[in-house]
Amino acid sequence: MPRKLTEQTNGVYAIAPTPFRQDGGIDDASLDRLTDFYAEVGCTGITVLGIMGEAPKLDAAEALDVARRVIRRSTLPIVVGVSAPGFAAMRSLATAVMEAGAAGVMIAPPPTLRTDDQIVTYFRQAVEAIGDDVPWVLQDYPLTLTVVMTPAVIARIIGDNPSCVMLKHEDWPGLEKISALRAFQKDGKLRPISILCGNGGLFLDFEMERGADGAMTGYAFPDMLVDVVAHARRGEREAAHDLFDAHLPLLRYEQQQGVGLAVRKYVLMRRGILASDVQRKPAAGLSAAAKAEIELLLARLARHDPRAQLAAAGAA
Amino acid sequence: MPRKLTEQTNGVYAIAPTPFRQDGGIDDASLDRLTDFYAEVGCTGITVLGIMGEAPKLDAAEALDVARRVIRRSTLPIVVGVSAPGFAAMRSLATAVMEAGAAGVMIAPPPTLRTDDQIVTYFRQAVEAIGDDVPWVLQDYPLTLTVVMTPAVIARIIGDNPSCVMLKHEDWPGLEKISALRAFQKDGKLRPISILCGNGGLFLDFEMERGADGAMTGYAFPDMLVDVVAHARRGEREAAHDLFDAHLPLLRYEQQQGVGLAVRKYVLMRRGILASDVQRKPAAGLSAAAKAEIELLLARLARHDPRAQLAAAGAA
Amino acid sequence: MPRKLTEQTNGVYAIAPTPFRQDGGIDDASLDRLTDFYAEVGCTGITVLGIMGEAPKLDAAEALDVARRVIRRSTLPIVVGVSAPGFAAMRSLATAVMEAGAAGVMIAPPPTLRTDDQIVTYFRQAVEAIGDDVPWVLQDYPLTLTVVMTPAVIARIIGDNPSCVMLKHEDWPGLEKISALRAFQKDGKLRPISILCGNGGLFLDFEMERGADGAMTGYAFPDMLVDVVAHARRGEREAAHDLFDAHLPLLRYEQQQGVGLAVRKYVLMRRGILASDVQRKPAAGLSAAAKAEIELLLARLARHDPRAQLAAAGAA
Amino acid sequence: MPRKLTEQTNGVYAIAPTPFRQDGGIDDASLDRLTDFYAEVGCTGITVLGIMGEAPKLDAAEALDVARRVIRRSTLPIVVGVSAPGFAAMRSLATAVMEAGAAGVMIAPPPTLRTDDQIVTYFRQAVEAIGDDVPWVLQDYPLTLTVVMTPAVIARIIGDNPSCVMLKHEDWPGLEKISALRAFQKDGKLRPISILCGNGGLFLDFEMERGADGAMTGYAFPDMLVDVVAHARRGEREAAHDLFDAHLPLLRYEQQQGVGLAVRKYVLMRRGILASDVQRKPAAGLSAAAKAEIELLLARLARHDPRAQLAAAGAA
User: Fold this and answer.
1) Contact D92 C56 (CB under 8 A)
2) What are the extents of the domains in chain B?
3) Closest C-alpha among A21, A22, A70 to residue A50
4) Which residues of B fall within a CB distance of 8 Å from D145?
5) Which fold has domain C11-236?
C-alpha cells in the first residue's frame, strides 16, 4: 500500500470539483470520468471535498459517498478535505475515509482564529480528534480563510504534529514563504515536509523554483500543471515558463474568486470530462459574455497547446 | 398539536446548552433534567442546537439525537438550530427534526454575506432547501455572525418568506431595530412577526418596552427572564426593572463572548440541573478566580432573589 | 513636572468626548468645563482624541487645537491619542502634543494586523516614528480594532519598548488577561506596567480585584469610577460592588457600540457639563424613546447615588 | 481649463507611486520625472495619493505638497485621493487640492460600512463635506477595502450625487459588474458615467470589451495600458490581446497584494524613472530571489515588447 501521504509526496494533486446533475444530484458517471482523467494525464494524486469541491454543499452522507467512490475507482492516493465547524464532524469524516482507503486528509483553519497560539492550539486539537496516525495536509489559504500563518507558526504546527506531512501552500503572495520554510529546513529548524501549491497555479512557475514539490490545485488543464512541474524538476526553465505563460491568460481567468469554479467546470465540460457545469446553490453562473471570453481564451491557447483544441461549443 | 411556531409565539424560549459528560459524550440525564427544568420555571419553549448549544461541535448523528431527545421528552414547542455551511446539510437536519416533531427551525446567515441582496437571496434559497412549510426563526446576531441586516432587509426577508414567523433579535445595539420593525407593522409595511430577544438578555428590560414578545436566550436564570417578561406584559414596570437590575451584575458576567458558556454551565451545575460544566474542545474554561467571582455574584444576587440561594460550592 | 506618564500611574483617566457646537465647530466653552469637571471629581488624568473623542472626525489642525487647549487648562496629566493610518501623521501629532506638554500618547493597532509578529513589529516601528523618549499607552481593544493580542504578545511589546508604560486594557472578556500579565510580572517575565481599564467600565468591579491600577474610560459618571477605584484600593469590597451595581444599568446602556457616545454626551449635557450632545457625522443620534429610557435610568440611579439627581430635562 | 473630470473622461489614468529618498523624504526629482513620463507615454491623466501612492504614510502637509507639485508640473488632469478616516480631513484636503487645480478627487468607502444604506449614506455625507461642485471618482475595491457594492448600490450613489462622474472599478471578479452598469444605462436607469478599471490591469483585455472607458491603475508599463486601451477602442482585438498577454506574466507578478508596490517601484527604477525603490515603513521589500524573478520576467517580456529591453541591473 504505497497510498499513504508522506513528506516525500510530490507531483500534481488535482483538486477535484464535485460534478452535479441538472437535478442537483451527484453525477457519478462524470465523477468516474474525472477520476480516470486525472490519472491519465499524469497527476500523482487527487484531492476531493476541498473548498473548490463544493464540500460544504454536500450533506454528511453525500460527502462520504463521493470520497469512497473516488478512492475505490482510482489507483492514485486520495486526499480528503475534512475541515468542519467542529471536531466531532471532522473526526467522523476522517475516520470513515481513512477506513475507506484515503491517503490522508486536509485541514484548513476556521476563520475565527487570530493569534499564533490560537492557530497552533487548533491544529493540536484537530490531531487529537482525528488520531495522530492519520497523515494530514495543512491548508494555508489566507485570502479565503482570513487566517494568517507566518512561516514560524507553520513550523510550530509541523513540529508539534508528526502526522502533518504536507503543506498546501496558497498564501498570496507566497513565494517568500516557500523560501523561508526551505531555509528553516536547511538550518535544521524544520523537518522535511512536502509543499504542494494551490492558488489555481497562478505562481506555479516560480513556486517550483523556490522549492515547491508540485501543485495541488484544480486548474482545468491539470496536464499543463503536470508538464510544468516535470519541466521544473528537470531544470528545463524556459520550457516551463513558455508553457506556463501560454496558459496564464486562461488560468488567470479561472482564478477569479467565486466565479472560478464555474469557469473550471465549464472548461472540464468542454473537454468532455464533465457532462455539465452545474453547481449547487449558492453559485455564480456564467453569462453568455463570460462563455464567449472563455472560448476566445481556449482558441488563443490552442495555438500554443494542442490540448486546448476543442470541438466547437454546442449549446454552451 | 399546538407545537408549531407562529407569529403569535411569545414568552421565553430557553437556549439549551448541550450537557457533556467528563468523557466528552452527551450527558442524557442532564439533558433530561434541563428539559424538565425549563418547563417547570415557566418557559414557553426551548431552542436546541443554537450557537450556545455547541451545535458545531456535534457530529450529524449526535445533533439529531439531542434534538429528538428533547422533543420527545418535552411538552413545550422545540426550535432547532439548523444553520449549516451548505443547504444540503441544512435540509437533512431540518427534515429530520420536523419529522421528529420540532416546532420550527432557526437559521443564521453565514458570515460571507455582505450586501442586502446577498442576504435576501440566501434566505430565499434556504427556504427552497428546507421547504416552505417549515416555520422558521431568522437569527440576527451581527456581533458574532458579522452580517448586518437593516430593518428594511429583515422586512424583505419576512415579506419574501411566509414561513418565517419569528425574529431572534440580538443585534447590539438593537432597541431602535425593534421600534423600526414595529413601526413598519403599524404602517402596513410588514406582516405580524414574533420578536424574541437574545444577547443573553442584556437589554431585556427595555426590549419588552419597545415591543418584543419575549426572550430567546440562555441566561442561567430563565426563571428571571420569565418573570421580567410577565411583569412587562402586565405593565409592572418597576417590578420588571427591579428584578432585572438585581440580576444584571451576573447576567453581564455571563454575557462575555467566548467565556459566557462556561459561566452559564457552571451556574446551571451549581443550581443542580447539570451534572458538570464540561464543554467540548475548543473551549474556554473557568479559572479559580472566575469561579470565585461567580460565587460572589450569586451570593450578592441571593439577597434580592432567593432562587440564587445555593448550597455552598463543593470542589468547584 | 510630574505630568509624564509612568508605569506607576493609577486612578481614573477620563476619556474626554469632543464637544461640538450646533454648527459643527468645536465648543471650546464646553471643553473647558469638561476639563475642569474631570479634575473636580477626582480624576487623576484625562485622555483626549481617543476613539470616543471622535478624533478621526477632526482635521489635523483641529485635533492639535483640542489637545493643546486641554493641556493648557488642566493641571492633570493629559494623554493624547495619536493612532493614525501612517507613521508620518502619528509622528507629527505626537511631536506637537509632547511639545505642548502632554503626559504621553496612546497608540492603537491598525485593523490590518493579524500575526503576532506583525503586531510586535508595528509597535516597534511606531516607537521609531514618535521617538523612544515619548511615554505611551498601548491600547488593546479587539472588539472595535479586530486585532487580538495575547498576554505574551503584550509582554513582548512592553519588553521591546521601554517607553511603553501603560496598557489600556479593553479586551472583552479580559479578566484573565489582567491576571496573566500580573502573573508574568510575579514570575519576572514582565517589568512593571500600569494597567488602566476601558470598555466603558463594564467589568471595573472585578478588574480592580484582578490587579488593575484603575480605569481609563469615558462613562458619564467618572465620579463613580473614581469612588469604585478608591474603594477597591482600600479593600472596601462591598462598598465598591454596591456603588458599581447601582450604576450598572445605566453604564450598560451607555456601553452600546455606536450609540454609546450619544448616550454619554446626552448625560454629560444633562449634568450641565456639555452645552449640547451634538456629534459630527457620521453619527447615531438618540430617539425620543432612547432619551426617555436614559431619563428612567437616571431617576432609578438617583435613589442610590445623589449625583444622578438632575433637574428635569427641558427640550431634551 | 479642460482639466476637470467629466463622465466622458477616458484613456489611462496612471496611479502614481510616491517616490521616496533613502532618508525617507519625498524624492521631488523622481516625482517630476514620473509626472513627465506619464504624459510622454500617452496617459490621459494621473492619480496621486491613492492606496498605492502610500498616501496614508504621508502627513497632511506632505500629502498636499505631493498633489500640488504634480498639478503644477503636468498639463494632464490630476485626480487626488482624499479618502480619510473622517470628513473634516477629507474636506480639508479636497478643498486645498481643488484650489490648487486638481481635476477631481477620489473617495473610497471606509471598511466599517456593511449595509447598502450605510454605503449610500456615507457617500452622500462625503459630498456634503467636500462640496457638491467637486467632481469625484467612486472607488470600488472590495478585496482591500472589504466593502461590497452591488451594481444597484453604485447606481444609487451615482444617482444621488451628480458630482460623481467616474467609477474606479476594481472589484474582483468584476467583468459582470461593468456589463450590469452599462445595461442600466441602456435601460435608462443610470446616467452616463466614466468607468476606468484598476486591479493592476489584470483583466483590462476583457474589461475594455465589456464597456470600460480605460484604465486607472499603476502597472509599471503604463505605455502598455495605453496601447491596449487604444487597440480596444479601435476594435483591434487580436492586437490588444497579444500585447496584453505578453505583459501578463509580469503584470500578474506585480499584482500581488502587499508586495506589488515594491515590484512596481523596482521596475520603474529599472526603467530609469525613479531614483530608488524605497518605501516608507511599514513596507514589504524585495528579496534577491524576487529581484531575479522580475529580471527574468523583464527579459522574457523584452522578446515581445522592446520597451522592456533595459540595461542590465546594477546593484539591484
Assistant:
1) no
2) 11-236
3) A70
4) none
5) TIM Barrel (3.20.20)
